[in-house]
């Protein structure tokens, strides 16, 4: 298989799958902290955050300090709510995600993830 064929197959696969949008939570039990965030791709979000934390590049300094103090095993990633965005424009998706994030921050008393 040529490089161009492989790229075409990967691109077709990416276009064919549907990403799931929603609200997620990152928690560090020993620190007693939790952070919430929004994602247009819940399936890839944990990997993105863990990569940033492992390399010391998280924009959330509080979460980075907890990672350094307690390590990866102390952290958990949970999907809080999946949001159906099938019929929504990009603007409405972002608006809906922010509304639900506010709701869950108040409900769970968690801080926000800066992602």
UniProtKB/TrEMBL annotation:
SUPFAM superfamilies the record matches: GIY-YIG endonuclease
Lineage: Bacteria, Pseudomonadati, Pseudomonadota, Alphaproteobacteria, Caulobacterales
Native organism: Phenylobacterium parvum
Highest taxon listed in the record's lineage: Bacteria
Full protein name: GIY-YIG nuclease family protein
């Amino acid at each position: 298989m040529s490089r161009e064929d492989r790229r075409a197959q990967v691109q077709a696969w990416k276009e064919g799958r549907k990403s799931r949008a929603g609200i997620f939570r990152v928690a560090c039990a020993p620190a007693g902290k939790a952070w919430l965030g929004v994602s247009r791709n819940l399936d890839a979000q944990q990997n993105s955050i863990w990569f940033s934390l492992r390399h010391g590049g998280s924009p959330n300094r509080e979460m980075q300090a907890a990672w350094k103090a307690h390590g990866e095993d102390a952290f958990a990633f949970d999907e809080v709510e999946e949001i159906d965005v099938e019929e929504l424009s990009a603007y409405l998706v972002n608006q809906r995600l922010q509304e639900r994030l506010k709701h869950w921050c108040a409900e769970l008393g968690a801080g926000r993830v800066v992602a």
